[in-house]
């Protein structure tokens, strides 16, 4: 009989792509994981993945069981959530703020699903550049902040949602689009378009330009991602965007993107919450929904 642990193992294998990393995620030894897989293959009387393939590839039988794993584990998760509601109640407040303005793309669908599952939770959110959300979080004015710039504040914990690449967006006809990747000095003669926040909060400065002592020729700000993209597309500057944001505009043929450095720069997006909020079931559920939605739907992001 196929068991829940088998299905979790198959999903871990797909998400990590290797036996070693899957074993670490499941808190098993590699030997125990291999034994479990052999046991499952013996039960279904066929191989489920191709040995020694990198990244790991599933057989057709393995792909069928992956579909089963997605369906069954989703139902198990739903049941567990419903039980938590019965045990802990549904009342509560979740006020959110967003430092990553591109996050509206995935935050709104997540909120729509969340409202249906937790209708009694009072939801509200704000975004903008006129206040500091992390101090407001520490003071209890808001309850959750989406940020890629964690700061050490007493009583605040940062839950990783996903990793992403910061890419440099260029006009398709830009001379730098001929390069495989960009170096800091490539931006020395460029107008850099960015959000109107302090540069010590922007990865393009803190992790790319400033360490190399490079200053762009000019800095132009915009609060709207779409406006930044339009300015870039028309050749009036370059900007740094998360890969999952840039992917939409690249697919439309509006812009080109290049990595910042040969290895690229890979920040992590976090949900910041107060210590006493982290264990609340409805907060845990929002974090799980947000992470699951992003890993499934955003192009190029990585599980953390």
Automatic annotation (TrEMBL):
Principal subcellular localisation of the protein: cytoplasm
TM region positions: none
Keyword flag DNA repair: no
Domain HTH lysR-type: 2-59
Keyword flag Isomerase: no
Keywords (A to Z) from UniProt: Activator, Amino-acid biosynthesis, Cytoplasm, DNA-binding, Methionine biosynthesis, Repressor, Transcription, Transcription regulation
InterPro entries referenced in this protein's UniProt entry, alphabetically: LysR_HTH_N, LysR_subst-bd, MetR_PBP2, WH-like_DNA-bd_sf, WH_DNA-bd_sf
Pfam families: HTH_1, LysR_substrate
Subcellular compartments: Cytoplasm
Family: Belongs to the LysR transcriptional regulatory family.
PANTHER family, A to Z: HTH-TYPE TRANSCRIPTIONAL REGULATOR, HTH-TYPE TRANSCRIPTIONAL REGULATOR METR
Protein name: HTH-type transcriptional regulator MetR
Organism in which the protein naturally occurs: Cellvibrio fontiphilus
């Amino acid at each position: 009989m196929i068991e829940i642990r088998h299905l979790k193992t198959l999903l871990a294998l797909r998400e990590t792509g290797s036996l070693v990393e899957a074993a670490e995620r499941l808190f098993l030894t590699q030997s125990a994981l291999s034994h479990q897989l052999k046991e499952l293959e013996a039960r279904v009387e066929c191989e489920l993945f191709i040995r020694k393939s990198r990244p790991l590839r599933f057989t057709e039988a393995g792909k069928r069981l992956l579909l089963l794993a997605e369906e069954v584990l989703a139902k198990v998760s739903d049941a567990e959530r419903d039980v938590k509601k019965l045990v802990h109640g549904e009342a509560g407040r979740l006020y959110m703020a967003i430092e990553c303005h591109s996050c509206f793309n995935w935050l709104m669908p997540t909120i729509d699903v969340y409202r249906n599952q937790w209708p009694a939770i009072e939801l509200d959110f704000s975004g903008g550049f006129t206040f500091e959300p992390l101090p407001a979080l520490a003071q209890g004015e808001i309850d959750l902040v989406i940020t890629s710039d964690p700061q050490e504040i007493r009583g605040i914990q940062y839950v990783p949602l996903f990793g992403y690449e910061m890419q440099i967006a260029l006009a398709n006809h830009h001379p730098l689009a001929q390069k495989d990747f960009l170096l800091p000095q490539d931006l020395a003669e460029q107008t850099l378009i960015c959000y109107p926040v302090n540069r010590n909060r922007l990865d393009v400065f803190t992790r790319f330009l400033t360490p190399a002592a490079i200053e762009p020729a000019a800095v132009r700000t915009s609060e709207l991602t779409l406006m930044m993209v339009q300015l870039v597309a028309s050749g009036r500057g370059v900007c740094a965007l998360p890969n999952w944001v840039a992917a939409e505009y690249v697919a439309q043929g509006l812009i080109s993107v290049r990595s910042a450095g040969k290895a690229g720069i890979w920040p992590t997006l976090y949900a910041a919450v107060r210590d006493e909020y982290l264990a609340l079931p409805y907060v845990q559920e929002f974090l799980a929904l947000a992470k699951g939605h992003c890993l499934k739907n955003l192009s190029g992001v990585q599980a953390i």
